[in-house]
Write a structure and sequence with these properties.
The protein is α/β, with parallel strands linked by helices. It has two domains: 6-172, Rossmann fold (3-Layer(aba) Sandwich), CATH 3.40.50; 180-382, Rossmann fold, CATH 3.40.50.1260. It has helices at 36-39, 42-50, 74-84, 98-105, 129-137, 171-185, 204-210, 224-230, 245-258, 299-309, 331-342, 352-361, 375-381; strands at 15-19, 54-58, 88-91, 111-114, 141-144, 166-169, 191-195, 216-219, 261-263, 267-271, 280-284, 293-297, 314-318, 346-350, 369-370. The protein binds adenosine monophosphate.
């Protein structure tokens, strides 16, 4: 399966609306604290500029329910102008409306129009067709490069495709889609999945879909305790989803049946309170004391997991191995990042926390691909059809 690429479309002199994901984090002063999401769309923007397109950009930022200056895309416009150099980025005062349409109609080459935050329009999250028509009326070509929202049927990513003449995918979206497809359909074996994070619930579906496709499964982070409890270990006060113990048992049984080797932590870094100042203990999973909770995998688990990754040809990683936000409990996650980035396997990471760990570890350049979408990348791995990607799938006459 392939997506209709922006490369397949005539762009010269065409008004081209690119849906981006500029949902960047900001500090308490409103400064952009991480502009990776802006940078990741620049190849598509530059390509469209080079083809002579007149560009309109649209994005959401945060989750405002109505117009709220705190969520204006103004800081994004400024950053974008600096990143693009020699391009004037004009900030529209609103998303649609006559002023904005006039700006769009009069765009010149060398200028880019950035619409205000799409979520200022109530219709955006309702997949409202009137909003979609208004957005579509401003452009000849629609390019979706906002993978992070593709699991949602929103007006600017789903309904809009019904009203524009040409819809296609930008380079970031194509990369995300292709890596997801490769993992599910043609991953080189041995294929190792490494999952972590706080909850089994968020990753249950992905685990079920992946099991028949992988050779080994490493489970770390808080979710490992539901599996350890399912195996009869005393996990003290560690995080657990009691209602999912049966599901955990099922996954353990399925893995066995399918010949998938399942690895859980053999030791943990435990503390009595959820704090960086707490006294810590390194204990084996057989010896977690009552009243203590495991907040990171221990050194023996790290060594074990490194060995498990040794012969991998493909690695998919989603979720930290511990509470990496606190320095005392970050070692297991940072080591995992180093092991995966050092390997010669095709390495794909997903989820915002995992990307943060990899960046903190300084390993980003050594991963094959780091997904920009949390929920969207999980749904792709779950094998679901993403509503905003469906209209962009290239229909192959031989399919
Ligand atoms: P998720 O959103 O499910 O991927 O979980 C990410 C969160 O899991 C991070 O904020 C981590 O701090 C947290 N986490 C990882 N390991 C543990 C653990 N052992 N106990 C509690 N929280 C954890």
């Amino acid at each position: 399966m392939q997506l209709i690429s922006v490369k397949d479309v005539e762009l010269s002199n065409k008004k081209t609306l690119i849906r981006c994901d500029f949902n960047v984090p900001q500090d308490e002063f409103g400064n952009i604290s991480d502009d990776r999401r802006i940078k990741s769309v620049i190849p598509t923007i530059r390509y469209c500029l080079d083809q002579g397109a007149k560009i309109i950009l649209a994005s959401h930022l945060g989750r405002p329910k109505e117009v709220n200056n705190k969520y204006s895309l103004e800081p994004v416009a400024k950053r974008l102008e600096r990143l693009l150099t020699n391009i004037e980025v004009i900030m529209a005062k609103n998303v649609i409306g006559n002023d904005t349409k006039e700006l769009a109609a009069n765009l010149k080459h060398g200028q880019i129009l950035l619409l205000e935050n799409l979520r200022f329009e109530k219709g955006e999250t309702k997949n409202d067709e009137n909003l979609a028509k208004d957005l579509a009326s401003m452009c000849d070509v629609y390019v979706n490069d906002a993978f992070g929202v593709c699991h949602r049927a929103h007006a600017s990513v789903e309904a809009i495709t019904k009203f524009v003449k040409v819809s296609c995918a930008g380079f970031l979206l194509q990369k995300e889609f292709n890596f997801g497809q490769q993992l599910l359909k043609s991953a080189a074996r041995p294929f190792v999945a490494v999952v972590g994070g706080s909850k089994v619930s968020g990753k249950l579906q992905a685990l079920h879909n992946l099991l028949p496709k992988i050779d080994k499964l490493i489970i770390g982070g808080g979710m490992a305790f539901t599996f350890l409890k399912a195996q009869g270990f005393n996990i003290g006060n560690s995080i657990v989803e009691e209602e999912l113990i049966e599901d955990a048992k099922q996954i353990i049984a399925n893995a066995k049946e399918l010949g998938v080797k399942l690895y859980l932590p053999v030791d943990v870094i435990a503390a009595q309170s959820f704090s960086n100042d707490s006294v810590i203990k390194k204990v084996s999973v057989q010896e977690i004391p009552n009243g203590w909770m495991g907040l990171d995998i221990g050194p023996a688990s790290s060594i074990l997991f490194k060995e498990v990754l040794n012969d991998a040809q493909t690695i998919w990683w989603n979720g930290p191995m511990g509470v990496f936000e606190m320095e005392k409990f970050s070692k297991g996650s940072l080591k995992m990042s180093h092991y995966i980035s050092d390997s010669y396997a095709t390495s794909v990471a997903g989820g915002g926390d995992t990307a943060d760990v990899i960046n903190r570890a300084g390993d980003a350049d050594d991963f094959s691909f780091i997904s920009t979408g949390g929920g969207a990348s999980l749904e792709l791995i779950e094998g679901k059809e993403l509503p905003a990607i469906k209209p962009l799938i290239l229909k192959d006459e031989f399919e």
